[in-house]
Design brief:
- The complex is a heterodimer of chains A (about 325) and B (about 250).
- Helix content of chain A is about 75%, strand content about 0%.
- With about 325 residues, chain A is mainly α.
- Chain A is globular and about 65 Å long.
- Chain B has about 250 residues and is α/β, with parallel strands linked by helices.
- In chain B, about 35% of the residues lie in helices and about 30% in strands.
- In chain B, the strands form 3 sheets. A 6-stranded mixed β-sheet of chain B has the order 5-6-7-3-8-9, with helices on both faces. A 3-stranded antiparallel β-sheet of chain B has the order 2-1-4, covered by helices on one side.
- In chain B, helix 4 crosses helix 5.
- Chain B is globular.
- Classes of the chains: A mainly alpha (about 325), B alpha/beta (about 250).
- The interface between A and B is medium-sized, with 23 and 31 residues.
- Chain B: Part of the ABC transporter complex HmuTUV involved in hemin import. Responsible for energy coupling to the transport system.
């Protein structure tokens, strides 16, 4: 846990220090803190600081909600997008680009994405019912994800010109480039509320190790647990998608990777995964700047490229353990 | 002292009555065996008593607030679910959850009761093993230890000895009998009539959602009821080794 915290801090500093402006790390950091009003201070405060902060926030959100979702469903293959939040947030964002709201209204895109997440989550809750089981929740989530995906494709299909389509596709790949402090302030309250909601799950998720019936008999209220899970995930993933696009594999791989380190306890895994997610997104965001600085490599593409083989390795290891 | 009292508890699922007017009172010191053919309503009775199912009628347990109920009764469902590869010790510690405030670390008292539960189920050598990698019988014992660690006056267990070898079946029944003797109340559902006859202080026989007999094993396991409810004929002898009960043949 301490090691993870130190890793996140180190990566955060690295994310601040590395960039195309070509200033040394110490020079950059002192410009950030000191603030001599020069161009470097401007770069640090307006470009790199929000980018690094969003990296931590988005990563922590994805890791935390992934761990919560896996704990609740008692399935290591669950991920935060399962209940349709990211797909419906993406649909909102795509609509914002398509209708031009994104270009004309300040923060129009993230606001529309949040609205999409809200509508999608509302539909999932309504579909799954207040007292349903985890199965109805998954089914409702899959249905809403599919619907949102289909509508996103429809918008792309009907897109009037290739530039709009291009913009939509690039947005959907997920990125932290060119974000401002306004994005941070938009996402932070929602993410904060979501983190608090998800943190209250620790005890319930631990009890769920013994199954829903045994957990209920131990004083865990299943309906409340579920509502906190859905609400928390909607807040953090909705806000993350709104400011950064869809970034896959973090919520799936990070909890899986850290599970052995916390003795597989789902409650402890929540915080470990939040730190792990922040570290992974920061590292990936540094990597996109270092590997191909001039080609604008998208963050979501990189996390999937790294995440998928990592996941294959984990499956291979699991298979060997089972044999 | 009465630990559990049910009054005309009834459950209908999809308009079909699965539990009808169950009235039952269990006191400290009793090991109650809940017997009956498949589908007789044994699990439903226990889940409704715990308030895990919507039911008509009254259950003293279901009327308690969730936290208070968890300190009064431990529940072992029939499905022996262990979702994550946690250690045996961690799993048994989950039984202490109702005694801990949110986010609180286990105190010395919690560790002590986990130690007692592990010792009682002879699980000390397995303490640091991963629970999901144990054999089915070992997992069953770990889950019993988890319920013991909850240290409640009442334990409800749904077929706790199914799938155990004869030695552990007997040992488990003796553990429950020991708990009852030390002032707990234990309600177990089981299909093994010989073990029920031998170890339970009282049997409750169910058939098609109703309680059809309630009393001492000898009084409940009459040839007529066995024929009517279980469709079997059994040999029932009092010996120096205690009561011997053995179903012999099916009668239809």
């Amino acid at each position: 846990m301490l090691a993870l915290g130190a890793l996140v801090a180190a990566l955060f500093l690295a994310a601040l220090a590395i960039g195309p402006a070509g200033a040394g790390p110490f020079q950059s950091l002192s410009a950030l803190v000191g603030g001599d009003g020069g161009p470097l201070t401007l770069i640090m405060r307006e470009i790199r600081l929000p980018r690094a902060l969003l990296g931590v926030m988005v990563g922590a959100s994805l890791g935390l909600s992934g761990a919560a979702m896996q704990g609740y469903l008692r399935n290591p293959l669950a991920e935060p997008g399962l209940i349709g939040v990211s797909a419906s947030a993406a649909l909102g964002a795509v609509l914002a680009i398509h209708t031009g709201i994104a270009a004309t209204v300040a923060l129009g895109l993230p606001a529309m994405a949040l609205a999409g997440a809200l509508v999608g989550t509302g539909l999932v809750v309504a579909l799954a019912g207040p007292r349903g089981t985890s199965l109805t929740l998954i089914l409702a989530g899959i249905a809403i994800s599919a619907l949102a995906g289909a509508l996103t494709s429809l918008v792309l299909n009907l897109s009037p010109n290739p530039y709009a389509a291009n913009e939509i596709v690039f947005w959907m790949m997920g990125s932290l480039a060119d974000r401002s402090m306004r994005h941070v302030w938009l996402a932070l309250p929602l993410m904060g509320a979501g983190w608090v909601l998800l943190a209250t799950l620790a005890r319930g998720l631990d009890a769920l190790t013994l199954g829903e019936d045994a957990a209920a008999a131990m004083g865990i209220r299943p309906a409340r647990l579920r509502l906190a899970l859905i609400g928390g995930t909607a807040c953090v993933v909705g806000a993350a998608t709104a400011v950064a696009g869809t970034i896959g594999f973090v919520g799936l791989v990070v909890p899986h990777l850290l599970r052995p380190a916390v003795g597989a306890r789902p409650g402890r895994l929540l915080w470990a995964s939040a730190l792990g997610g922040a570290a992974m997104v920061l590292a990936a965001d540094i990597a996109v700047r270092v590997i191909l600085p001039e080609r604008d490599l998208k963050l979501g593409v990189l996390t999937a490229l790294v995440g998928a083989p990592l996941f294959l390795h984990l499956i291979y290891r699991t298979r060997r353990e089972m044999a | 002292m009465t630990v559990l009292s049910l009054d005309a508890l009834s459950v209908s699922l999809r308009g079909r009555p699965v539990l009808r007017d169950a009235t039952l009172s269990v006191g400290a010191g009793e090991l109650v065996g809940l017997i009956g053919p498949n589908g007789a309503g044994k699990t439903t009775l226990m889940r409704a008593a715990l308030g895990l199912l919507g039911a008509r009628g009254r259950s003293s347990l279901a009327a308690l607030p969730a936290r208070e109920r968890a300190r009064t009764a431990a529940w072992m469902p029939q499905s022996r679910e262990i979702a994550w590869p946690v250690t045996v010790e961690t799993l048994v510690m989950l039984g202490r959850l109702p005694h801990m405030a949110g986010g609180q670390r286990p105190a010395a008292a919690d560790h002590a009761s986990v130690d007692r539960a592990l010792a009682r189920m002879e699980l000390d050598p397995l303490r640091h093993r991963t629970a999901t990698r144990l054999s089915g019988g070992e997992q069953a014992r770990v889950l019993i230890a988890r319920a013991l660690a909850q240290e409640t006056p009442l334990i409800l267990a749904d077929e706790p000895i199914a799938g155990l070898d004869p030695a552990y079946q007997i040992a488990t029944m003796q553990t429950f009998a020991g708990l009852a003797a030390s002032g707990h109340a234990v309600v177990v559902s089981l299909h093994d009539l010989p073990l029920a006859a031998r170890h339970c202080t009282r049997l409750v026989m169910m058939d098609r959602g109703r309680i059809v007999a309630d009393g001492a094993p000898d009084a409940v396991l009459t040839p007529e009821r066995l024929a009517e409810v279980f469709h079997v004929r059994a040999l029932h002898r009092q010996t120096e080794e205690g009561p011997i009960f053995q179903p012999i043949e099916v009668i239809r």
